[in-house]
Fold this sequence. Notes:
The complex is a heterodimer.
Chain A: H1 9-36, H2 40-46, H3 58-66, H4 69-100, H5 106-118, H6 122-134, H7 141-165, H8 169-177, H9 182-193, H10 195-211, H11 214-219, H12 228-231, H13 243-277
Chain B: H1 13-37, E1 40-41, E2 49-50, H2 54-60, H3 63-102, H4 104-119, H5 122-132, H6 139-146, H7 163-175, H8 177-187, H9 192-200, H10 205-216, H11 218-233, H12 237-243, H13 254-263, H14 268-300
Amino acid sequence: MKSRHIRTAGDWLALVIMILAALIILFPLIILFINAFKTQADYTQHGPLTLPKALTMSNITSFWKSSNFPVKLTNSIVISVCVAIIGVILSVLNSFALGIGRVKGNRVILVLILLANMAPQEALLYPLYVMFKAIGIYDTQLTVIIIFSIVQSAYGTYLLSSVYGTFPQAILEAGVMDGASKWQILWKIILPVSWPTISVLFVFFFVWTWNEYMIPMSLLISDSTQTVPLALAPLQGQYVVNATQLAGASLLSIIPTIIFYMFFQHQLTSGIVAGSVK
Amino acid sequence: MSRLPGAHPNSFNIYLLPGLIGLLIIIIIPLLANVYISFTSWRGVGMPRWTGLTNWARILHDQDFWASFGHSLLMILAVTIIPTILGLLTSSLLSDVIQKKFSGRMASLFRGIFYIPQILPIAVATIIMGWIFRPEKGAVNEVLKAIGLGSMQRNWLGSSTWAMPVLMIILIWIQFGYPIVIFMSGLERVDPELYEAASLDGANWWRKFCTITLPEIIPELLVVLLTSTIGALKTFGPVYLLTKGGPGRQTIVPSYYSYTQFFQVQQVGYGATISTALTLVIVVFAIVFSFIQNHVEKNQD
């Protein structure tokens, strides 16, 4: 059976279609990359489709300075890491009570939590905005950390409690026989066994929080509190900024995401799959 | 079903406490507050003034509101329907043809490329796409000129005919990789011998797609339809960043409409009404959809 080596015309056609699709998907990014290093004069003269005649870093360095990029990068990292850690801890505690403890009304609680995950953000936005202003932490990174820890942990609880719901009974019983307390069982038995799912959640929470837009835009109004995705917004007026500057700025904004993707590609893909089909 | 032997369920309540308090303060109370605000007239300062059903009556006759929900259907087309169909065909080609006749590495390379727009912050992905659709020497216009379709060049996002279709193309570009990754992993479950047997019987690719691929990945299909449709209803970033709902009201969507009521015209009560209506639509959709999902799963067993 060596069907692998008998390639029909249809097989080659499929390959050509896939290559074309890949080129269409990559086209905007390739064009972005080419123009990020072009001078403005070069762009005006030859348009966006040609290779740069001379390489310049000025598009990128000028955005680096004008947008306060190091500050925004730090904010994004701090916010996303905090959310990922707190979100995972809350997901584990919730799921331990719901999946293993089977607390009373666990189904109702799960439905409430799911509702939390589905609600559109603008239905929470204004009350949260008023609340954070009232307690005086409006326009600090803390607001976004608190909100997204809860929002992400809703999804984490949904996923992890179904994993814990089918946790091997024998392992739990062995733990009880050894006289372990609940806390020890969670810490010494359940956590190590569910580490793969937890690491997937961690990566997910990090990426989702990093990419958030509406709530950070509404609550983080100072330059010094904003995140990377917000940095580009002032540049997007179509006629205001020249094209090469926007290309350089966009390229710089996606570099951290691309690096992260290369490191955690496996967790991300297995994560969406785990998340989708339980 | 697991359960800790000898422990009373109530003794676990303490573990649930931090999560539930957070849920209450950050989600449930704000959601209820938003419903309350929808019954008031409020400019965001001072106290909200109770006006009963006034906002809700206004919504019924508000053409912008109905236009925004009409556009949500187009968002569902661009975020759910078209990417799902393309994703079904692509993942079937990748796992049935590319992986088997060429190589598994090649198939996962394609999958990785298709997924790239999904990992970019949606705001950044949107701005990049808006950039290639720029009127002045934008890449799309330049390509049209290069292939002799120079007369097609235009200010895409500023055109009342083209703003919506272009917005939809941008969303399709962003969304394309999501169903593919999920479908391809679903297809890993399928016994390869099914395909072998079908091939020996002389079934072509399309026949195998209809009789094996499609029925096998129905669970994944339902999940993709549910999550993408909710995503489509919540569309905000692309509209806010590229068109501000315009030109005119051509691209207004509920999320953006309520945002402008909150922060641009300070009609907080009315903004809350729009976002409450959107929440209701999403919840009803999710409930109906889970019934369908349960029904399909039962029929499969």
